[in-house]
């Protein structure tokens, strides 16, 4: 790998015309680059209006409504006073209609509770004098969202008159588990999927991430198993490291790998290889210890590869070590041929 310029190997790069093989430009890790990355990593939080405490819930098929007609208990509790509001309520049928005595069949789906109350009041006024009634939703069953993945109680959540946001859905599902990846929560709506960074909401107050959910939405919380970085090359313990809730810098990744090998590593050739649709390669040359200050401010991302190149003398020693067995074999063969020829 070259310290400057472009990579010597072509990799798939996403372009408007599709994926094409291309060389990746190697960028030097400088103070300007770190400032640019930190602004992208910690963007200025967007403030959006807080969701309303209640919403005009629209009734749908399967919902159960409870109609209370004052001074007429025979209409309010026709099945007895010991039944719950849900048991004594009226279920909206699959075609969106409901039946109520003296009012007949009413198209209830799509109405709010107050709109249904006005219709019932108008219809019952033909039979009952001075009608006073109240309509309440006894059970919300027509609209639902799905919360799956790393939450304590995954499952189906009904949408009620309280607006359902991403944070509200996670809280109703029991909250995150210890292995939850809060940065890459995915929301699937009508076949389209987008990512939500709830860590930015909790940590930096970015309320734009707290999206309002709709009927049929799927909120998926992945685990942190994918959030790994890989430290390879001339380090004492090469391997993978799982990122936690907080960011990991280049210096921390190298430090967790038990630091670079003192004599085997080339401190001028430290690389960060970042994949994705548009791969990137970053190069840090620590010609002096001061340059490691840049490593402590350079944030890594999941699936980054940190590679510490070997020193030139180590490379030479490896070449010699690989050549020596072949040389010994050739010398032994030549010695056998010489002895065979002199006999």
TrEMBL record:
Residues 143-221, 228-308 form the SLBB domain. InterPro entries: Poly_export, Poly_export_N, SLBB_dom, Wza_C. Residues 52-137 form the Polysaccharide export protein N-terminal domain. Its main location: membrane. It comes from the Bacteria. Keywords: Cell outer membrane, Ion transport, Lipoprotein, Membrane, Palmitate, Polysaccharide transport, Porin, Signal, Sugar transport, Transmembrane, Transmembrane beta strand, Transport. Residues 313-333 form the Outer-membrane lipoprotein Wza C-terminal domain. Coiled coil: none annotated. It is found in: Cell outer membrane. It is a multi-pass membrane protein. Belongs to the BexD/CtrA/VexA family. This is Sugar transporter. The lineage of its organism: Bacteria, Pseudomonadati, Pseudomonadota, Gammaproteobacteria, Chromatiales.
């Amino acid at each position: 790998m070259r310290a400057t310029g472009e990579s010597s190997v072509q990799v798939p790069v996403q372009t408007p015309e599709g994926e094409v093989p291309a060389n990746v430009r190697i960028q030097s890790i400088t103070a300007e680059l770190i400032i640019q990355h930190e602004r992208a990593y910690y963007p200025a939080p967007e403030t959006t209006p807080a969701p309303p405490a209640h919403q005009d819930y629209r009734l749908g098929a399967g919902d159960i409504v409870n109609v209370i007609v004052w001074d007429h208990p025979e209409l309010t509790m026709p099945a007895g006073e010991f039944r719950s509001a849900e048991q004594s309520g009226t279920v909206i049928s699959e075609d969106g209609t409901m039946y109520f005595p003296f009012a007949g069949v009413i198209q209830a789906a799509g109405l709010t509770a107050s709109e249904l109350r006005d219709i019932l009041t108008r219809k019952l006024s033909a039979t009952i004098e001075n009608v006073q009634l109240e309509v309440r939703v006894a059970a919300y069953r027509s609209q639902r969202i799905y919360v799956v993945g790393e939450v304590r109680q995954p499952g189906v959540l009904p949408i009620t008159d309280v607006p359902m946001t991403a944070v509200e859905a996670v809280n109703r599902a029991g909250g995150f588990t210890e292995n939850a990846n809060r940065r890459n929560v995915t929301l699937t709506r009508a076949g389209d999927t987008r990512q939500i960074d709830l860590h930015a909401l909790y940590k930096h107050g970015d309320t734009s991430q707290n999206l309002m959910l709709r009927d049929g939405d799927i909120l998926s919380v992945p685990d942190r198993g994918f959030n790994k970085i890989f430290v390879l090359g001339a380090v004492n313990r090469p391997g993978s490291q799982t990122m936690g809730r907080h960011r990991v810098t280049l210096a921390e990744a190298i430090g967790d790998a038990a630091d670079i090998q003192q004599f085997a590593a080339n401190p001028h050739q430290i690389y960060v290889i970042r994949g994705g649709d548009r791969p990137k390669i970053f190069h840090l040359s620590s010609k002096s210890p001061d340059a490691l200050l840049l490593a402590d401010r350079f944030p890594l991302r999941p699936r980054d590869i940190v590679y510490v190149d070997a020193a030139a003398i180590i490379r030479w020693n490896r070449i010699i070590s690989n050549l020596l067995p072949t040389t010994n074999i050739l010398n032994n063969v030549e010695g056998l041929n010489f002895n065979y020829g002199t006999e």
